[in-house]
Amino acid sequence: MNVFIAGGTSGIGYSLARHYLEKGYVVGICGRNPEKVPENSSESLKIFQADVREMHSITLALQTFLSDSKNLDLFINCAGSYSEDVAGQISYEEAEEMLQTNILGTANCFEAARKAMKGQKKGSIAVIASVSGIMNYENSSLYTKTKRSVIQMADAYRRALKPFGISVTAIAPGYVDTEKLRLLNHNDLSKKPFLTDVQTAVTIISAAIESQEKLVIFPAKMKWMMKSLSILPSFLLNIIMYRKARWMKDDQP
């Protein structure tokens, strides 16, 4: 089985790569900075430099991985960008990065995988979104809106590719204890509810892909909390989520 993971040089993506390597699969990963891959990584792991924001870049990396006429069994897009924008405190550059990586990058990955799989009449595509993406209210953060777009995009590709034997799974995790999350929060995760360790996340994600599930939200407590909040009136939800974001950033009202 041949697996390619965009954004696989660190975090959940790299942990998934190790999971599939241990199962004996042929695994390729790509990222903007391949040097992020740990030095003790398996020699059988195929590493490529690519930027999901550029269609040619991700396509070339995938084609090189498949150059010896291998079929593409599974493509996972773990690439993502996050910047906090509480009370509009976000630069143009940060906003542009999120839009291009989370939306354009997702579309590029779907297209690259679709083209590789279209002649096979089989294959699986998965994308990592966020539990915040199931929320829909006026003043949700830019990050939340981009991840909601990812979930909607996955649904569109699922409907389009199903007749061709290609499954699409969207993964919407809550907080996962990765090095990036710790870096963003100065190694203090005390305000991150229902935190999931990486290995548990990998187990849930890989099982969801194998079962060809449409949308998987975890952990369960976070799922039901977000669904409960989503039924509130928009004006009340705006207030609650704004105050929650300010509290998590230790800002004063």
From TrEMBL:
InterPro entries with a match to the protein in the record: NAD(P)-bd_dom_sf, SDR_fam
CDD domains per UniProt: SDR_c
Keywords: Oxidoreductase
Domain of life: Bacteria
GO molecular function: oxidoreductase activity
EC number: 1.-.-.-
Alphabetized Gene3D superfamilies for the sequence: NAD(P)-binding Rossmann-like Domain
Entry-linked Pfam families: adh_short
Recorded family membership: Belongs to the short-chain dehydrogenases/reductases (SDR) family.
Protein name: SDR family NAD(P)-dependent oxidoreductase
Organism per entry: Chryseobacterium kwangjuense
